[in-house]
């Protein structure tokens, strides 16, 4: 899918012209990242296929904006608000708190009539987490279970890559690919990436190795 950011709403979502262009490729699902209900409505009206609420559909208005749309939904975990989320994030039990929040939001959407087959989950790497918390979440992915829903992982070019490699965002391809393959190995079903061609090639080689390995074991 093609993911666009629609966080701003003055005088209209800035992604709407891009949605219009992208709609010329009907086989390509279009995903919008936003926490603003008015942006959700405008983008759904313009043909968006997926709404990724970076605030996890905390507001009633956001739930109402998407409930009857039929669009795919991504519930993301974020501690705090976008402007403050990285100010000393703290958890008593990281894994339990992330899963508990996501389960609560899944149930909230279900009460609004949203079928589970429309939902995927994002643990929110880089959103209200320290470096160690990001990697703890990723490493624990096989043990994280919320109603059997698929996990979306987005770590491409993020600071959690840069803090390990010492590279700026434009030079984090190798680290991003390594993190992506680790995520897939740990059970991620959906990936958010910047470098599509390189990611596709890396996944193709990874899949070939996995397939040959299965043949060897049978």
From TrEMBL:
Membrane spanning stretches: none
UniProt cross-references to PANTHER family, sorted A to Z: FOLATE SYNTHESIS PROTEINS (PTHR20941), FOLIC ACID SYNTHESIS PROTEIN FOL1 (PTHR20941:SF1)
An example Gene Ontology CC term for this record: cytosol
Pathway recorded for this protein: Cofactor biosynthesis; tetrahydrofolate biosynthesis; 7,8-dihydrofolate from 2-amino-4-hydroxy-6-hydroxymethyl-7,8-dihydropteridine diphosphate and 4-aminobenzoate: step 1/2
Pfam families reported for this sequence: Pterin_bind
Gene3D superfamilies: Dihydropteroate synthase-like (3.20.20.20)
Protein name in UniProt: dihydropteroate synthase
PROSITE patterns: PTERIN_BINDING
